Amino acid sequence: MRQITNGRASARRFALAALAAAGAFFTGTAAAQEAIRIGAFLSVTGPAAFLGDPELKTLELYVDRFNAEGGVLGRKLQLVAYDDGGDAEKARTFAKRLIEQDKVDIIVGGSTTGTTMAAVPLAEQAGTPFVSLAGAVVIVEPVKKWVFKTPHTDRMACEKIFVDMQSRKLAKAALISGSGGFDKSMRAECLKVAPKYAIEVVADETYGATDTDMTAQLTKIKGSGAQAVLNAGFGQGPAIVTRNYRQVGLALPLYQSHGVASREYIKLSGPAAEGVRLPAAALLVSELLAGEDPQKPVVVNYRKGYEDKFKADVSTFGGHAYDGLMLAVQAIKKAGSTDKAKVRDALEATKNYVGTGGVVNMSATDHMGLDLTAFRMLEIKDGNWSLVK
User: Fold this and answer.
1) CATH homologous superfamily, domain 154-280
2) 2-152+299-371 and 154-280 share one fold
3) Which of 181, 234, 271, 289 is 20 to 30 Å from 210 by CA-CA measure?
4) Is 69 in contact with 97 (CB distance < 8 Å)?
């Protein structure tokens, strides 16, 4: 059962869904056994809507599917979701509400690094299992007892890109990054690991969240002696960088982060995206995977289910929510209850979970459970994704 609410008047459909869900939930025998409450705060509107919208749709779709099949441990699932609009303070408020008022059993959410980190102290203090859908390594390093995450980290993205640069005999890189939490974290991680891969960073430029022209920064990069450029960022910024990149006449290889791993980036960038490379989950190239690839049936089935239901392109961000929900349900089943400590322990003991992001093996020292092989290097060719061999 779903209960979806929103802090903004512009998203009344969520409030209406909440009323409908609440009415259905408390009728007949459905209220006889208490539902398992899955909490979520997501950036469904605002600048990070391209993350939160597919995440919410995915949670709705699969909560409905679980309930149609009898629920979990003989209990229905109830999704209690709030739209934080990408605002960290609202995320903190909603996380507090989920924990203290809604009394959810587990939280699956946090579309961005900023909104996630605003909620982390609350989850830790309350002892509520929290599976984040955001990218920065700071979410799980250092390890936090109650916090886990599904996406690949920004550090992994840097490393995957630098490995690809090495294969192309590119040793001098220029960085350009945005001002958001993810952008800053990835920039720092790339600077940290570059020496490990014998990559010299010869330029380091930044842009603001509301900037609409990055030609000045890219012109500096053009004269830096760089052999390749890496843009650490997500949202509209990377698309502007990509268009400006071609406008200033840069012909160097351009890399983007996994933060733009959706068709929206290609649409916003237009023909300028041709040849851009980025690390991403297998989900984007499900049809190109080898038949024996263990992820193929998972990503093909998720893609079909999502696209059939919503008539929209799949994105890796919805995949992060799929993995978060499946990990939560698997842990609840393994715990045999919604006892928070037991569910937390079951999450930490996750082994060989095959999801849209890769094969997950968690431990007391790793609350993400993915290694570099979980990333695929993609290149945009003829306006579509292709696998770099």
Assistant:
1) Response regulator (3.40.50.2300)
2) yes
3) 271
4) no
Q: What number of CA atoms fall less than 13 Å from residue 270's CA on the CB side? A: 7
DSSP-based three-state secondary structure for 80: strand
Assigned fold of 2-152+299-371 = Rossmann fold (3.40.50)
Q: How do the pLDDT tens digits run along the chain, 389 residues long? A: 444 555 443 333 343 344 334 444 433 444 448 999 999 999 999 989 999 999 999 999 999 999 999 999 999 999 999 999 999 999 999 999 999 999 999 999 999 999 999 999 999 999 999 999 998 899 999 999 999 999 999 999 999 999 999 999 999 999 999 998 889 999 999 999 999 999 999 999 999 989 999 999 999 999 999 999 999 998 889 999 999 999 999 999 999 999 898 888 999 999 999 999 999 999 999 999 999 999 999 999 999 999 999 999 999 999 999 999 999 999 999 999 999 999 999 999 999 999 999 999 999 999 999 999 999 999 999 999 999 98
pTM: 0.87
Phi, then psi, of 285 in degrees rounded to 5: -125, 40
